[in-house]
Amino acid sequence: xxxxxxxxxxxxxxxxxxxxxxxxxxxxxxxxxxxxxxxxxxxxxxxxxxxxxxxxxxxxxxxxxxxxxxxxxxxxxxxxxxxxxxxxxxxxxxxxxxxxxxxxxxxxxxxxxxxxxxxxxxxxxxxxxxxxxxxxxxxxxxxxxxxxxxxxxxxxxxxxxxxxxxxxxxxxxxxxxxxxxxxxxxxxxxxxxxxxxxxxxxxxxxxxxxxxxxxxxxxxxxxxxxxxxxxxxxxxxxxxxxxx
Length: 244
What we know:
This protein is of the alpha/beta class. The chain contains eight helices and seven strands, in the order H-H-E-H-E-H-E-E-H-E-H-H-E-H-E. Helix 5 (125-135) links the parallel strand 4 and strand 5 (136-147). Residues 1-7 have low confidence and may be disordered.
């Protein structure tokens, strides 16, 4: 077991702690950016507005930026600490929330939303997708990524009675599973559950792909990359949907 100290008083305190990881692997970011670039097409018809909601330290958006040249990329996060770091990487980074007062954007003002490794941290994912749907124009693109509960190694771990990777039972430490970092995952999805959830929230699912997980031990990474060919077995789920 690995512990973190001091324990958070509230969930917000946990995410405002600079020691909590706010970035994910570049391989996932590049794959997701390529999916979005294909969906948007060239910027010859004018720049499109892309919101990276839950941008964290801005590293994912910075990785995506070369694939989205000519488009307007705006980072959004509610954590002031994360925004301070994001502003060193992005030309635009603003504070906004998916619940409460909502995002600081007009209805239908965004052409696309990047929603990377955020869904699993939310208390109310339904309200979050409602707010994303509000700011997207009709036909706008949602590029969502989240860990896969049914990743190939998690299936084996469950059979052995071991807590799956990505799942967490405490904000103070890791219990019953491999790994050492507490990152605050509250919800996990299989490929089927993610498709159904996004469709029920007013989106049309276009494509589902897989991505590797940067935390997989080096010796197992070739297998992890192979699993991407079958998204229901992949470490990370990459979903492209459009606002209905």
